[in-house]
Amino acid sequence: MAEIHSKSSLLTLAILPLFVIFCINFIVAVDGKSQTFGRVLNPTKLGLKKEKLSHFRMYWHDVVAGPKPTAVVVAKAPTTSKSTNYFGGVVMIDDALTEGPQLSSKLIGRAQGFYASAGIHEAATLVNMNFAFMVGKYNGSTLSIMGRDKTLSPGVREMPIVGGAGVFRFARGYVQLRTHRMNLTSGDTTIEYNIYVFH
Ligand SMILES: *[C@@H]1O[C@H](CO)[C@@H](O)[C@H](O)[C@H]1NC(C)=O
Ligand SMILES: *[C@@H]1O[C@H](CO)[C@@H](O)[C@H](O)[C@H]1NC(C)=O
């Protein structure tokens, strides 16, 4: 019995310092004052209002032909031109976003970014762009969209909204897109965008 007792005392002596160190670490971690790089903020102090859900509809115009293209090829692989789906091609865009389906209708903003052919066996692009708004209280604010578009699909596609700035701070949501018009000779395309966003 005595031997067992002394063994457990030794064990307690060995564990006690570890326990004390653990407690000190725990207290330091819980005490926010020990951190200088981060703190908890009240959302109203940032001027944040109650989150709302907004819907916008607009038309995106990809002009590739003519003297003033808004979509230009900036990179491709040696094999891209021979690929049925133009795999590896990267196109930089500064496309007009308008209220109506005609390019001449009211300008709401511009879609700036790029899309890249990311499908070997199907026409699928990686789209990475910012919708820069230019009207009313949205002027100067942006929504960032990144997703996959099956460009030749006649149906509705969907891409995530990954964030936003200005009135769209903390944005999350999705866009639904449907090709409105495509000129297979020139490549010029108009796509209807329906945006659903919490912000
Ligand atoms: C949008 O903001 C820019 C820069 O602040 C300004 O020049 C332009 O007039 C504004 N446009 C509208 C429609 O308010
Ligand atoms: C399609 O593009 C070609 C070449 O730019 C042009 O000649 C033709 O008029 C366009 N078709 C339509 C319906 O706009």
TrEMBL record:
<comment type="function">
    <text>Dirigent proteins impart stereoselectivity on the phenoxy radical-coupling reaction, yielding optically active lignans from two molecules of coniferyl alcohol in the biosynthesis of lignans, flavonolignans, and alkaloids and thus plays a central role in plant secondary metabolism.</text>
</comment>
<dbReference type="GO" id="GO:0048046">
    <property type="term" value="C:apoplast"/>
</dbReference>
<dbReference type="Pfam" id="PF03018">
    <property type="entry name" value="Dirigent"/>
</dbReference>
<protein>
    <recommendedName>
        <fullName>Dirigent protein</fullName>
    </recommendedName>
</protein>
<dbReference type="InterPro" id="IPR044859">
    <property type="entry name" value="Allene_oxi_cyc_Dirigent"/>
</dbReference>
<dbReference type="InterPro" id="IPR004265">
    <property type="entry name" value="Dirigent"/>
</dbReference>
<keyword id="KW-0964">Secreted</keyword>
<keyword id="KW-0052">Apoplast</keyword>
<comment type="subunit">
    <text>Homodimer.</text>
</comment>
<comment type="similarity">
    <text>Belongs to the plant dirigent protein family.</text>
</comment>
<dbReference type="GO" id="GO:0009699">
    <property type="term" value="P:phenylpropanoid biosynthetic process"/>
</dbReference>
